[in-house]
Fold this protein.
Amino acid sequence: MSQQFASTLLENAVNELSRLPGVGRKTALRLALHILRSDEKNGVALGNAIIDLRRNIRYCDCCHNISETPLCPICADPLRDSSTLCVVENVKDVMNLENTRQYRGLYHVLGGLISPIDGIGPDSLEIDSLVERVNAGDINEVILALSPTMDGETTGYYIFRRLNGSHVAVTQLARGVAIGNELEYTDEITLGRSLLNRTPFNE
């Protein structure tokens, strides 16, 4: 039985909120009613923050991390080690690795992992731009900081093959990260140790 709403505006808000991941219609209704009960300035601030996020956030021209400028703050920082490149699946992985405070190099965000079942091939990811960065000659080490899942292993192997002959060291996180775990769910201490104790990538 479909839920009845006393207001079309409320129904529209619930419909939009329920599009968010992990938010069902009951939770969406709770959120909408909370916003409605809150001070108007709080609701307006939330709406403006979402609009600003959508309109003004872009992706870094170099590493594809989120940014408000053509180059993200990490790529633009002259104190970062530009000879080391850490390859990650998504923006959240950059945040997780930065929180370990164990890494001072640069990043490259792939935008996903190779997953034939989901129709995601190498051409759907930022792999060509990674190869271009390595071939530019400034990179000495590429760290594959990918989730140790089947898709992560497949992606790592593909990148390793693409970089074969480029004369850069290709390493991977130490196996403190359990096989089958998503990187974003790994605690910061384990992630930091895995980064510090990274090992050569092995075919």
